[in-house]
Design goal:
By secondary structure, the protein is of the alpha/beta class. It has 5 helices and 11 strands; from the N terminus they run βααβαβαββαββββββ. It has a single domain, classed as Rossmann fold, CATH 3.40.50.
Length: 241
């Protein structure tokens, strides 16, 4: 994994990211499950490389962001890490791709469930936030809000997938409640408002195999940004760590 200057990267908002996903699925024939698998593998790799956890709680929502979290849980479990997966919605309320990820996880022997009492989650070494991604609609509520509060109060660091839950990619702002992450793995390209955000923590970008030319329509030159890396850490001019 290498560092790269954040200023070199295209920055996209919610509408642009939706178009990226549409092009991938409809024009290029890359399935949502394939993109989830890429996201989950990269997320697990970053979790291990950055945090080296023995026990991980993965919080998953009902959509594509949750599907990426579910895929990461399988990769972590395969590497001998103790993984507990908690859902913010019952399995029957998940969209089709995350439901398929749940089936794969359960067949692999990993427990996946909605829990009544979040205090029973104990003290993990790392919390993975895959509750709500770039398509946030209103502030987190219900079980998702409970999990956000638990994660923010836990002693373990939080690693968010794509955006911290509670972040609005439509305008680059945070709603309440929102996750305060130690690190965020954003997918394909940084979302507007993430670079330099305290709530996002250290910002990484993960390759989900979006061809660089997809960004040409917005005048972005994304060629060579990932080079030989699946994961890249983004640095700003004020980041001297």
């Amino acid at each position: 994994m290498r560092d790269s200057e954040a200023a070199l990267w295209p920055v996209v908002d919610e509408a642009q990211m939706r178009e990226v996903d549409r092009v991938m699925i409809e024009d290029l024939g890359v399935s949502l499950l394939q993109m989830m698998e890429n996201a989950g593998r990269n997320l697990a790799a970053l979790a291990i490389t950055r945090f080296d956890p023995a026990r991980v709680v993965v919080m998953c929502g009902s959509g594509g962001n949750g599907g990426g979290g579910l895929a990461s849980a399988r990769h972590l479990s395969n590497r001998g890490i103790d993984v507990r997966v908690v859902l913010s919605s019952p399995v029957e309320e998940l969209t089709p791709a995350p439901r398929e990820q749940v089936s794969i996880l359960r067949a692999s022997g990993v427990d996946v469930a909605v829990i009544d009492d979040v205090s029973t989650l104990g003290t993990p070494d790392l919390v993975i936030d895959a509750l709500i991604g770039y398509s946030l609609r209103g502030a987190p509520s219900g079980k998702a809000a409970e999990l956000v509060a638990w994660a923010n109060g836990a002693t373990a660091p939080v690693l968010s997938l794509d955006v911290p839950t509670g972040f609005s990619a439509a305008n680059g702002t945070y709603l309440e409640p929102h996750i305060g992450a130690a690190a965020t793995l954003t997918l394909a390209a940084p979302k507007r408002g993430l670079i330099g955000s305290d709530a996002a923590g250290d910002l990484y970008v993960g390759d989900i195999t979006v061809p660089p030319q997809v960004y040409d329509q917005w005048g972005y030159d994304a060629r060579g940004l990932f080079a030989r890396d699946w994961l890249v850490r983004l640095r700003t001019d004020t980041d001297h760590r």
